[in-house]
Amino acid sequence: MKKILFLFSLLVIFQTCRPDNGIGSEAGVYDVDPVFEPYVQEFIAEGAKRGKTIDFSDSGLIVEFSDVQLAGANGRCYLGQHHVEIDKSRWFSFSEDVRGFLLFHELGHCELDRLHRNDKFGNEAWKSIMRGDPLEGIEIWMPIPFFGFRKDYFTDELFNEQIGLPDWANQTFAYAEVPASAKEVVKSAENTDRINQRFTELTEDYELEIDFSLLGAGTTSVIKLIWGTTTNHYYIQIFPGLPAYRVSGYFIGVHQDNQDNGLFFNQNISNINGAPLNKITIRREGGFEKIFMNEQFIYHIDLQKTPLASVRVEATTPQDALDNAFDIQRFEARKIN
After folding, report:
1. Which residues pair with 327 in a beta bridge?
2. Predicted model pTM
Protein backbone atom coordinates (compact mmCIF):
# COMPACT_ATOMS: atom_id res chain seq x y z
CA MET A 1 0.00 0.00 0.00
CA LYS A 2 2.83 2.42 0.78
CA LYS A 3 4.14 2.34 -2.80
CA ILE A 4 0.76 3.19 -4.28
CA LEU A 5 0.09 5.89 -1.71
CA PHE A 6 3.30 7.57 -2.85
CA LEU A 7 1.44 8.70 -5.96
CA PHE A 8 -1.05 10.60 -3.84
CA SER A 9 1.76 12.23 -1.87
CA LEU A 10 3.15 13.59 -5.12
CA LEU A 11 -0.17 15.19 -5.91
CA VAL A 12 -0.31 16.72 -2.44
CA ILE A 13 3.23 18.09 -2.58
CA PHE A 14 3.10 19.55 -6.03
CA GLN A 15 -0.30 21.15 -6.16
CA THR A 16 0.21 24.87 -6.29
CA CYS A 17 -0.53 27.68 -3.90
CA ARG A 18 -3.32 30.05 -4.75
CA PRO A 19 -2.50 33.69 -4.00
CA ASP A 20 -5.51 35.66 -2.91
CA ASN A 21 -6.43 38.90 -1.20
CA GLY A 22 -7.25 38.74 2.47
CA ILE A 23 -6.58 40.13 5.89
CA GLY A 24 -2.84 40.45 6.21
CA SER A 25 -0.25 41.73 8.64
CA GLU A 26 -0.41 45.18 10.10
CA ALA A 27 2.52 47.35 9.10
CA GLY A 28 5.56 46.47 11.19
CA VAL A 29 3.97 43.44 12.91
CA TYR A 30 6.24 40.43 12.69
CA ASP A 31 4.51 37.24 13.79
CA VAL A 32 6.13 34.12 12.36
CA ASP A 33 5.41 30.71 13.86
CA PRO A 34 8.71 29.33 15.26
CA VAL A 35 8.35 26.32 12.92
CA PHE A 36 8.74 28.65 9.93
CA GLU A 37 11.33 31.05 11.35
CA PRO A 38 14.42 29.12 10.05
CA TYR A 39 13.02 29.19 6.51
CA VAL A 40 12.26 32.92 6.70
CA GLN A 41 15.78 33.61 7.95
CA GLU A 42 17.22 31.46 5.16
CA PHE A 43 15.16 33.45 2.64
CA ILE A 44 16.59 36.71 4.04
CA ALA A 45 20.14 35.31 3.94
CA GLU A 46 19.81 33.99 0.38
CA GLY A 47 18.47 37.35 -0.74
CA ALA A 48 21.44 39.14 0.87
CA LYS A 49 23.86 36.88 -1.02
CA ARG A 50 22.22 38.10 -4.21
CA GLY A 51 22.19 41.81 -3.34
CA LYS A 52 18.59 41.90 -2.08
CA THR A 53 18.05 43.56 1.28
CA ILE A 54 14.95 42.08 2.87
CA ASP A 55 13.60 43.84 5.94
CA PHE A 56 10.15 43.06 7.29
CA SER A 57 10.29 45.83 9.91
CA ASP A 58 8.22 48.18 7.75
CA SER A 59 5.88 45.74 6.03
CA GLY A 60 5.56 43.20 8.83
CA LEU A 61 5.14 39.49 8.16
CA ILE A 62 2.74 36.82 9.35
CA VAL A 63 3.49 33.17 8.62
CA GLU A 64 1.12 30.78 10.32
CA PHE A 65 -0.54 27.40 10.06
CA SER A 66 -4.05 27.13 8.71
CA ASP A 67 -6.24 24.57 10.44
CA VAL A 68 -8.51 24.40 7.40
CA GLN A 69 -7.61 23.12 3.96
CA LEU A 70 -6.58 25.83 1.53
CA ALA A 71 -8.73 24.85 -1.45
CA GLY A 72 -6.32 22.11 -2.54
CA ALA A 73 -3.18 24.21 -2.01
CA ASN A 74 -0.31 23.63 0.39
CA GLY A 75 0.15 27.31 1.14
CA ARG A 76 -1.26 30.71 0.32
CA CYS A 77 0.08 34.24 0.22
CA TYR A 78 -2.38 37.09 0.59
CA LEU A 79 -0.96 39.33 -2.11
CA GLY A 80 0.05 42.76 -0.85
CA GLN A 81 -0.56 41.72 2.74
CA HIS A 82 2.71 39.95 3.77
CA HIS A 83 0.60 37.16 5.18
CA VAL A 84 1.31 33.47 4.49
CA GLU A 85 -0.79 30.49 5.55
CA ILE A 86 0.46 26.90 5.37
CA ASP A 87 -1.79 23.84 5.45
CA LYS A 88 -0.97 22.26 8.81
CA SER A 89 -2.26 18.83 7.82
CA ARG A 90 0.33 18.59 5.03
CA TRP A 91 3.40 20.39 6.32
CA PHE A 92 4.67 17.58 8.53
CA SER A 93 4.54 15.07 5.67
CA PHE A 94 7.04 17.09 3.60
CA SER A 95 10.82 16.67 3.40
CA GLU A 96 13.07 19.60 4.35
CA ASP A 97 13.67 20.48 0.69
CA VAL A 98 9.94 20.58 -0.04
CA ARG A 99 9.31 22.73 3.03
CA GLY A 100 11.99 25.15 1.89
CA PHE A 101 10.54 25.23 -1.62
CA LEU A 102 7.05 25.96 -0.27
CA LEU A 103 8.15 28.83 2.00
CA PHE A 104 10.40 30.35 -0.67
CA HIS A 105 7.54 30.16 -3.18
CA GLU A 106 5.08 31.92 -0.87
CA LEU A 107 7.62 34.56 0.19
CA GLY A 108 8.35 35.07 -3.51
CA HIS A 109 4.72 36.17 -3.82
CA CYS A 110 4.50 38.16 -0.60
CA GLU A 111 7.91 39.86 -0.49
CA LEU A 112 9.22 39.84 -4.07
CA ASP A 113 5.86 40.41 -5.78
CA ARG A 114 6.50 37.43 -8.03
CA LEU A 115 3.60 35.93 -9.94
CA HIS A 116 3.43 32.40 -11.26
CA ARG A 117 5.79 31.50 -14.10
CA ASN A 118 5.04 28.30 -15.99
CA ASP A 119 7.67 28.08 -18.72
CA LYS A 120 9.92 25.02 -18.98
CA PHE A 121 13.31 23.82 -20.10
CA GLY A 122 13.56 21.69 -23.23
CA ASN A 123 13.12 18.47 -21.23
CA GLU A 124 9.79 19.77 -19.89
CA ALA A 125 11.24 20.55 -16.44
CA TRP A 126 10.08 23.80 -14.83
CA LYS A 127 12.30 26.89 -15.01
CA SER A 128 11.13 28.43 -11.73
CA ILE A 129 9.90 27.50 -8.29
CA MET A 130 7.21 30.10 -8.98
CA ARG A 131 5.33 27.71 -11.25
CA GLY A 132 1.70 27.39 -10.28
CA ASP A 133 -1.94 27.77 -11.29
CA PRO A 134 -3.11 27.46 -13.94
CA LEU A 135 -1.67 24.00 -14.59
CA GLU A 136 -2.92 21.85 -17.44
CA GLY A 137 -3.15 18.09 -17.87
CA ILE A 138 -0.07 16.20 -16.68
CA GLU A 139 1.58 19.41 -15.43
CA ILE A 140 0.13 18.73 -11.98
CA TRP A 141 2.47 15.69 -11.75
CA MET A 142 5.63 17.57 -12.78
CA PRO A 143 7.70 18.37 -9.65
CA ILE A 144 10.16 21.16 -8.93
CA PRO A 145 13.67 19.68 -8.39
CA PHE A 146 14.55 22.06 -5.53
CA PHE A 147 17.32 19.71 -4.53
CA GLY A 148 21.08 19.25 -4.79
CA PHE A 149 23.06 21.20 -7.38
CA ARG A 150 19.84 22.51 -9.01
CA LYS A 151 18.86 24.35 -5.84
CA ASP A 152 21.25 27.27 -6.42
CA TYR A 153 19.76 28.03 -9.83
CA PHE A 154 16.18 28.00 -8.53
CA THR A 155 17.15 30.33 -5.69
CA ASP A 156 19.02 32.63 -8.12
CA GLU A 157 15.97 32.77 -10.40
CA LEU A 158 13.67 33.50 -7.49
CA PHE A 159 15.54 36.73 -6.75
CA ASN A 160 16.35 37.56 -10.39
CA GLU A 161 13.79 36.47 -12.95
CA GLN A 162 16.07 37.54 -15.82
CA ILE A 163 18.86 35.13 -14.96
CA GLY A 164 20.22 32.98 -17.79
CA LEU A 165 19.83 29.23 -18.12
CA PRO A 166 21.99 27.06 -15.87
CA ASP A 167 24.68 24.82 -17.38
CA TRP A 168 22.74 21.70 -16.46
CA ALA A 169 19.62 22.73 -18.39
CA ASN A 170 20.94 21.28 -21.65
CA GLN A 171 23.62 18.97 -20.28
CA THR A 172 23.73 15.49 -21.78
CA PHE A 173 25.86 12.37 -21.57
CA ALA A 174 26.46 9.53 -23.99
CA TYR A 175 25.65 5.98 -23.00
CA ALA A 176 28.79 4.76 -24.79
CA GLU A 177 31.17 7.23 -23.15
CA VAL A 178 32.27 4.57 -20.63
CA PRO A 179 33.62 1.57 -22.59
CA ALA A 180 32.85 -2.02 -21.66
CA SER A 181 36.56 -2.56 -20.98
CA ALA A 182 36.28 -0.15 -18.01
CA LYS A 183 33.51 -2.18 -16.34
CA GLU A 184 33.72 -5.25 -14.11
CA VAL A 185 30.61 -7.24 -13.22
CA VAL A 186 30.36 -7.88 -9.46
CA LYS A 187 26.78 -9.18 -9.19
CA SER A 188 24.22 -10.40 -11.70
CA ALA A 189 20.87 -12.16 -11.99
CA GLU A 190 18.67 -13.43 -14.81
CA ASN A 191 15.00 -14.27 -15.36
CA THR A 192 13.55 -13.22 -12.04
CA ASP A 193 10.58 -11.17 -10.83
CA ARG A 194 12.53 -9.26 -8.16
CA ILE A 195 16.03 -7.96 -7.36
CA ASN A 196 17.09 -7.34 -3.76
CA GLN A 197 20.89 -7.09 -3.64
CA ARG A 198 23.17 -5.76 -0.92
CA PHE A 199 26.65 -4.45 -1.64
CA THR A 200 30.00 -3.86 -0.01
CA GLU A 201 32.08 -3.84 -3.22
CA LEU A 202 30.66 -0.75 -4.95
CA THR A 203 32.17 2.03 -2.87
CA GLU A 204 33.12 4.37 -5.74
CA ASP A 205 31.99 4.60 -9.39
CA TYR A 206 29.54 1.93 -10.53
CA GLU A 207 26.90 1.00 -13.06
CA LEU A 208 23.58 -0.76 -12.45
CA GLU A 209 21.70 -2.09 -15.46
CA ILE A 210 18.31 -3.78 -15.63
CA ASP A 211 16.59 -5.30 -18.69
CA PHE A 212 12.90 -5.96 -18.06
CA SER A 213 9.43 -6.10 -19.58
CA LEU A 214 6.83 -3.46 -18.76
CA LEU A 215 3.63 -4.70 -17.20
CA GLY A 216 0.54 -4.45 -19.37
CA ALA A 217 -1.47 -1.25 -19.72
CA GLY A 218 -4.21 -0.94 -17.11
CA THR A 219 -2.31 -2.92 -14.49
CA THR A 220 -2.64 -1.79 -10.90
CA SER A 221 0.98 -2.70 -10.14
CA VAL A 222 3.81 -0.19 -9.96
CA ILE A 223 7.46 -0.88 -10.83
CA LYS A 224 10.04 0.66 -8.52
CA LEU A 225 13.84 0.75 -8.67
CA ILE A 226 15.60 1.88 -5.48
CA TRP A 227 19.34 2.34 -5.02
CA GLY A 228 21.26 3.71 -2.01
CA THR A 229 20.59 2.96 1.64
CA THR A 230 17.39 2.15 3.49
CA THR A 231 16.97 5.67 4.86
CA ASN A 232 18.47 7.70 2.00
CA HIS A 233 18.16 6.63 -1.61
CA TYR A 234 17.16 7.56 -5.12
CA TYR A 235 14.30 5.86 -6.90
CA ILE A 236 12.58 5.46 -10.25
CA GLN A 237 8.89 4.63 -10.08
CA ILE A 238 7.06 3.52 -13.22
CA PHE A 239 3.29 3.62 -13.67
CA PRO A 240 2.64 1.55 -16.80
CA GLY A 241 -0.96 2.73 -17.05
CA LEU A 242 -3.21 3.29 -14.07
CA PRO A 243 -6.60 4.74 -15.07
CA ALA A 244 -7.65 5.06 -11.42
CA TYR A 245 -4.74 7.45 -10.79
CA ARG A 246 -4.93 9.27 -14.13
CA VAL A 247 -1.22 8.92 -14.80
CA SER A 248 1.10 6.87 -16.96
CA GLY A 249 4.83 7.52 -16.94
CA TYR A 250 7.78 7.51 -14.58
CA PHE A 251 9.01 9.56 -11.65
CA ILE A 252 12.64 10.04 -10.62
CA GLY A 253 13.08 11.12 -7.03
CA VAL A 254 14.90 11.02 -3.73
CA HIS A 255 13.90 9.51 -0.40
CA GLN A 256 15.02 11.61 2.57
CA ASP A 257 13.57 12.69 5.92
CA ASN A 258 11.37 9.57 5.69
CA GLN A 259 9.63 11.09 2.68
CA ASP A 260 9.66 10.56 -1.08
CA ASN A 261 10.45 13.76 -2.95
CA GLY A 262 9.84 13.71 -6.71
CA LEU A 263 12.45 15.44 -8.89
CA PHE A 264 11.40 14.64 -12.47
CA PHE A 265 8.39 13.22 -14.29
CA ASN A 266 7.90 12.13 -17.89
CA GLN A 267 4.88 10.37 -19.30
CA ASN A 268 6.73 8.70 -22.17
CA ILE A 269 7.30 5.01 -21.52
CA SER A 270 6.16 3.77 -24.94
CA ASN A 271 8.80 5.21 -27.27
CA ILE A 272 12.27 5.83 -25.83
CA ASN A 273 14.99 5.38 -28.42
CA GLY A 274 12.39 3.78 -30.66
CA ALA A 275 11.11 1.14 -28.21
CA PRO A 276 8.95 0.77 -25.08
CA LEU A 277 10.86 1.29 -21.87
CA ASN A 278 12.72 -1.98 -21.28
CA LYS A 279 16.17 -1.02 -20.00
CA ILE A 280 17.39 1.28 -17.21
CA THR A 281 21.02 2.12 -16.54
CA ILE A 282 22.19 3.97 -13.43
CA ARG A 283 25.78 5.15 -13.74
CA ARG A 284 27.72 6.81 -10.93
CA GLU A 285 30.56 8.51 -12.78
CA GLY A 286 31.97 11.95 -13.54
CA GLY A 287 30.58 13.51 -10.36
CA PHE A 288 26.93 12.57 -10.95
CA GLU A 289 24.47 9.73 -10.82
CA LYS A 290 23.34 9.49 -14.46
CA ILE A 291 20.12 7.81 -15.55
CA PHE A 292 19.74 6.26 -19.00
CA MET A 293 16.60 4.60 -20.35
CA ASN A 294 16.93 2.37 -23.39
CA GLU A 295 20.50 3.75 -23.57
CA GLN A 296 19.20 7.33 -23.90
CA PHE A 297 20.31 9.89 -21.31
CA ILE A 298 17.35 11.10 -19.25
CA TYR A 299 18.48 12.85 -16.04
CA HIS A 300 21.42 13.36 -13.67
CA ILE A 301 21.50 13.85 -9.91
CA ASP A 302 24.05 14.58 -7.18
CA LEU A 303 26.25 11.74 -6.02
CA GLN A 304 24.77 9.95 -3.05
CA LYS A 305 26.51 10.90 0.17
CA THR A 306 26.98 7.31 1.32
CA PRO A 307 28.34 4.23 -0.51
CA LEU A 308 25.82 2.08 -2.32
CA ALA A 309 24.36 -0.38 0.20
CA SER A 310 21.52 -2.00 -1.71
CA VAL A 311 19.52 -2.17 -4.93
CA ARG A 312 15.90 -3.25 -5.12
CA VAL A 313 13.76 -3.71 -8.23
CA GLU A 314 10.22 -5.02 -7.97
CA ALA A 315 6.62 -4.56 -9.00
CA THR A 316 3.95 -4.40 -6.33
CA THR A 317 0.18 -4.33 -6.22
CA PRO A 318 -1.91 -1.81 -4.25
CA GLN A 319 -1.95 -4.39 -1.43
CA ASP A 320 1.88 -4.26 -1.36
CA ALA A 321 2.16 -7.81 -2.71
CA LEU A 322 4.85 -8.72 -5.23
CA ASP A 323 3.61 -9.00 -8.80
CA ASN A 324 5.07 -12.25 -10.11
CA ALA A 325 4.20 -11.25 -13.67
CA PHE A 326 7.04 -8.74 -13.63
CA ASP A 327 9.86 -10.11 -15.77
CA ILE A 328 13.46 -9.01 -15.19
CA GLN A 329 15.53 -10.64 -17.92
CA ARG A 330 18.89 -9.42 -16.70
CA PHE A 331 20.45 -7.44 -13.87
CA GLU A 332 24.12 -6.51 -13.58
CA ALA A 333 26.02 -4.41 -11.07
CA ARG A 334 29.45 -3.33 -12.30
CA LYS A 335 32.47 -1.51 -10.98
CA ILE A 336 33.77 1.27 -13.21
CA ASN A 337 37.55 1.18 -13.13
Report:
1. 213
2. 0.91
